[in-house]
């Protein structure tokens, strides 16, 4: 299904309001034509001094048509705008539901600023699809067909003129302007995405820009991009105005032609003079609904571009999507296996992981060590289904990862990542995301275990935890992992920002809690790994050695060299 068909499918959910808007729009349009036609006829008839009752009937008809037009126009605006806002709401919900399963893989390919531009700008621009693309042509055709049919009873020549004017203003002019507008709209969307990216990078990287004294340079780049976006918008607005102006010019020329031909027909006796004013008034009025058609190609291209950009994200074949829907068959401590697994990030020239085959026994304690960039963190993300393997198979007990629902794995996993997010609010609120039913007493006990007992549960946490130190963030993340239930522990450098004494106290608590669980620990430090059941050493995305601590020390390989280097640095 094409993106535009998907959009129409979402739009058609509000078919009751859509049909009502078309009906009210037609009534408003045809009553407007009737109002001016009756007014023109009334002017001509009054000049002939008809009986009073005839004037009363005509004036009453004019007033009635005016009342119908106003009421129908109000109802049309009410229903069409209600439908538009509801359709926008449905679009946002549907797009988010499709986008949510793609996180965090989506950030491998798209920058956050670009995504923000699509989520906000492109979705917002689709508000014009119903109001200016989908429904105006339907109303216009109904009003024009009815009007031209009515006109044929008085003059076929005038009917043909109106029909030709209709074709020029609704087909020829929009087609010619759409060719130019296509390039302009693509430029606007591209510049908006670039501006969103520049703004987010300026905000998130402000501290670094300050420290490296690059704020002015980045600000100039941001202002330059804003200026480029403003210029493309101005170019678009000029094109819109010129389109509407030219369409208006053609409609007025059509009315002048109706007047000229009508006068000629009256002169030769083919048309009664009393109907001339009526036909001219009809030509002036029937083209009123043409005004939205002047910008029809602009908004059509805008909607098409927007829905294509949104579809490009949620249906991107380069971004893996979790297809599993099975629950885990057991909630006991798992054993894990990887068979010839490979993985690389989008656009990366190298393999992050290459031909990884490991077994993590049930209830075992495994350490993964290696230099920075060796693929340790990526391996853990595959195990908790935050990333998906390009090749090879992963197993949780005997269940293949491709069959398991990601949420089922997360329910059984306690995770501390290298970078942990903290929400604006309080310490209590940031801990309760691990266990929303936890009592204050339990929360305070967890803070005590990670040596944060001086924290108050009502203590303020700034956005992204900016008011917390690196060590405090790590300990708070560990406290959340301790609060959560689950038989698999995934710890990615959980104590890298802690001093040796604090680290040892916290690791002892983790050892006690995870006594019967399966645990994986990523670490740069060799000291303290003697207790591990196995150690996996990685380099350049490959496993270069594995085994127990004493076995690897006897081999005097990579781990032995790391140990010697660590000891020499500690003195």
From TrEMBL:
> How is this protein positioned relative to the membrane?
Multi-pass membrane protein
Q: Name one GO biological process term.
A: glutathione transmembrane transport
Give the transmembrane ranges: 21-43, 49-68, 129-150, 156-177, 246-268, 274-300
| Ranges of residues in domain ABC transmembrane type-1 | 21-302
* Alphabetically ordered keywords of this record: ATP-binding, Membrane, Nucleotide-binding, Transmembrane, Transmembrane helix
- What are the GO MF terms of this UniProt record? ABC-type transporter activity; ATP binding; ATP hydrolysis activity; ATPase-coupled lipid transmembrane transporter activity
Does the record carry Transmembrane as a key word?
Answer: yes
The protein's location, in the record's own words, is: Cell membrane
Q: Which NCBIfam families match?
A: CydC
Family annotation (PANTHER family) = ATP-BINDING CASSETTE SUB-FAMILY B, TRANSPORT ATP-BINDING PROTEIN CYDC
Name of the protein described by the UniProt record: ATP-binding cassette subfamily C protein CydC
């Amino acid at each position: 299904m094409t993106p535009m068909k998907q959009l129409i499918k979402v739009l058609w959910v509000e078919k009751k309001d859509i049909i009502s808007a078309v009906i009210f729009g037609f009534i408003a349009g045809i009553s407007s034509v009737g109002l001016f036609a009756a007014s023109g006829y009334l002017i001509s008839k009054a000049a002939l001094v008809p009986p009073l009752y005839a004037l009363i009937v005509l004036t009453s008809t004019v007033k009635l048509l005016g009342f119908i037009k106003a009421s129908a126009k109000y109802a049309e605006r009410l229903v069409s705008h209600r439908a538009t806002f509801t359709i926008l709401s449905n679009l946002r919900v549907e797009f988010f539901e499709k986008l949510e399963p793609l996180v965090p893989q989506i950030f491998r390919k798209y920058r956050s600023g670009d995504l923000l531009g699509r989520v906000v700008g492109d979705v917002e621009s689709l508000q014009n699809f119903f109001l200016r693309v989908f429904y105006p042509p339907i109303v216009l055709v109904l009003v024009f067909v009815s009007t031209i049919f009515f006109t044929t009873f008085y003059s076929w020549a005038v009917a043909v003129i109106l029909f030709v004017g209709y074709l020029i203003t609704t087909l020829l002019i929009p087609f010619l302007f759409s060719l130019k507008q296509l390039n302009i709209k693509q430029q606007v969307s591209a510049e908006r995405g670039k501006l969103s990216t520049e703004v987010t990078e300026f905000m998130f990287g402000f501290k670094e820009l300050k420290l490296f004294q690059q704020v002015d340079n980045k600000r100039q780049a941001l202002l330059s991009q804003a200026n480029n976006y403003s210029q493309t918008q101005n170019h678009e607005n000029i094109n819109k105005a010129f389109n509407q102006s030219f369409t208006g010019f053609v409609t007025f020329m059509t009315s002048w032609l109706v007047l000229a031909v009508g006068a000629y027909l009256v002169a030769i006796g083919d048309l009664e003079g009393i109907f001339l004013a009526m036909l001219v008034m009809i030509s002036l009025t029937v083209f009123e609904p043409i005004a939205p058609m002047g910008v029809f190609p602009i908004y059509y291209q805008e909607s098409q571009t927007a829905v294509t950009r949104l579809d490009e994200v949620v249906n991107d074949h380069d971004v893996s999507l979790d297809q599993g829907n099975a629950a885990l068959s057991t909630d006991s401590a798992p054993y894990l296996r990887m068979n010839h697994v490979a993985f690389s990030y989008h656009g990366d020239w190298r393999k992050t992981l290459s031909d990884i085959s490991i077994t993590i026994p049930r209830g075992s304690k495994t350490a993964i060590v290696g230099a920075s960039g060796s693929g340790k963190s990526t391996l853990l993300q595959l195990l908790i289904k935050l990333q998906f393997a390009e090749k090879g198979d992963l197993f949780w007990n005997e269940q293949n990862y491709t069959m398991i629902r990601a949420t089922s794995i997360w329910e059984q996993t306690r995770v501390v990542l290298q970078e942990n997010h903290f929400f604006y609010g309080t310490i209590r609120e940031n801990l309760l995301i691990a266990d929303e039913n936890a009592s204050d007493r339990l929360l305070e006990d967890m803070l005590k275990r990670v040596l944060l007992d001086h924290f108050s549960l009502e203590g303020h946490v700034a956005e992204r935890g900016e008011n917390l130190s690196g060590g405090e963030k790590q300990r708070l993340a560990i406290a959340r992992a301790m609060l959560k239930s689950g038989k698999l522990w995934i710890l990615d450098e959980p104590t890298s920002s802690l001093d040796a004494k604090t680290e040892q106290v916290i690791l002892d608590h983790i050892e006690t809690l995870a006594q019967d669980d399966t645990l994986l620990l990523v670490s740069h430090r060799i000291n303290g790994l003697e207790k591990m059941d196995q150690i996996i050493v990685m380099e350049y995305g490959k496993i270069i050695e594995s085994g127990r601590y004493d076995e690897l020390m006897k081999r005097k390989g990579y781990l032995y060299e790391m140990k010697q280097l660590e000891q020499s640095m500690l003195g």
